[in-house]
Amino acid sequence: MAVQKSRRTPATRGMRRSHDKLKKPAVSVDPTSGETHLRHRVSPDGFYRGQQVVTQPEPNDEDDE
Predict the structure, then answer these.
(1) How distant, in Å, are the alpha carbons of 14, 15, 17, 47, 64 from that of 21?
(2) Nearest to 39 by CA among 50, 30, 26, 23
């Protein structure tokens, strides 16, 4: 079984942990709707790069019976 020869110092521990931080997601703003979304993805309104690529389904009033 491996046993360390000497104790790791707090500085060495901090240098190792310096790469463990989380990066913020790249967020962009849609020029048409002004909504924020992840880059290279369709916004919740269905817009991508200023053009509507996905249409939202119309709500049906017939299902309320």
Answers:
(1) 11, 12, 8, 32, 50
(2) 26
CA 37 to chain centre: 8
What is the token pair recorded at 16?
């190792």
Rg of the chain over all Cα atoms, to the nearest angstrom = 25
pTM for this entry: 0.47
In DSSP terms, which residues pair with 48 in a beta bridge? 51
Neighbours of 47 (CB within 10 A): 19
Question: Given pLDDT bands bounded at 50, 70 and 90, which one contains residue 45?
Answer: confident
